From TrEMBL:
It catalyses: dCMP + ATP = dCDP + ADP; CMP + ATP = CDP + ADP. It holds the Pfam family Cytidylate_kin. GO terms for cellular component: cytosol. Its main location: cytoplasm. The keyword ATP-binding applies. GO terms for molecular function: ATP binding; CMP kinase activity; dCMP kinase activity. The gene is cmk. InterPro entries: Cytidylate_kin, Cytidylate_kinase_dom, P-loop_NTPase. Its EC number is 2.7.4.25. It is found in: Cytoplasm. ATP binds at G9, P10, A11, G12, A13, G14, K15, S16, T17. This is Cytidylate kinase.
């Protein structure tokens, strides 16, 4: 039986950082479901299909092929066989992902892929609906969060580290907007599963979060 660890939470909570490092500690596969929504978004942008075009999206879902492959512990996202791991990281793709992730057909297709991956391998999977919808029977569920201000400061530092200019107040506004969109959408909104452990990382370092996660898993006898 494959062990499944689900990590959900809002943008900037540290899901991908923590899920990736935790998967490495346990020698599990890290599954970044956000990357799948981003790959789908890139496809729609390339095909000129808008997030409101229900028919266009349905057809696109039928012909697109999105997959995750892991080479030496590094995840690659393939869109119709092309490695788009770097291309999907733009702001434009992120915004389209957030919009197209509200479409039922898109979610149906990607959730199916995510479940297939988790059924055959031990995974740490992060996203918005993993504990509530994708893997309702996950062995461990974590709802990772942090205050809006902390998350904004984290994103702000990431921009500065890349030598880019950034406006903290604007980032804070964007995060609030994205939270609202993810938490209030009709299908699979972001919310803490009843059996998820709440982990607030506002005052914790990455190491401290990882140690807390290890304790949670030990209690579950993983
Ligand atoms: O995936 P998600 O949007 O939840 O967050 P992320 O892309 O992992 O970004 C989180 C940022 O906060 C990264 O720059 C981390 O280095 C930093 N960070 C963290 O993840 N956890 C902490 N306890 C402290 C800082
Ligand atoms: O920018 P950030 O790292 O926070 O987002 P992401 O994890 O790369 O996901 C991009 C977008 O896909 C998010 O804004 C979500 O709306 C959506 N998403 C989702 O709906 N369900 C998931 N399981 C993962 C991502």
């Amino acid at each position: 039986m494959a062990f499944n660890i689900a990590i959900d939470g809002p943008a900037g909570a540290g899901k991908s950082t923590i899920a990736k490092a935790f998967a490495q500690r346990l020698s599990y596969i890290y599954v970044d479901t956000g990357a799948m929504y981003r790959a789908m978004a890139l496809y729609l942008l390339r095909e000129g299909i808008s997030a409101e075009d229900e028919g266009g999206i349905e057809e696109a879902c039928e012909r697109v092929d999105i997959s995750l492959v892991h080479e030496d512990g590094v995840q690659k996202v393939l869109l119709n066989g092309e490695d788009v791991s770097s291309l999907i990281r733009s702001e434009e793709v992120g915004n389209m992902a957030s919009k197209s992730a509200q479409n039922g057909k898109v979610r149906e297709k990607l959730v199916e892929l995510q479940r297939q991956l988790a059924a055959r391998t031990d995974v740490v999977m992060d996203g918005r609906d993993i504990g509530t919808c994708v893997l309702p029977k996950a062995d461990v569920k974590i709802y990772l969060t942090a205050s809006v201000h902390t998350r904004a400061v984290r994103r702000y530092k990431e921009y500065l580290d890349k030598g880019m200019e950034a406006d903290l107040a604007r980032i804070e506004e964007d995060i609030e907007k994205r939270d609202h969109q993810d938490m209030n959408r009709e299908i699979s909104p972001l919310k803490r599963a009843a059996d998820a452990v709440l982990l607030d990382s506002s005052d914790l370092t990455i190491e401290e979060v990882l140690d807390t996660m290890m304790e949670i898993c030990k209690n579950k006898k993983i």
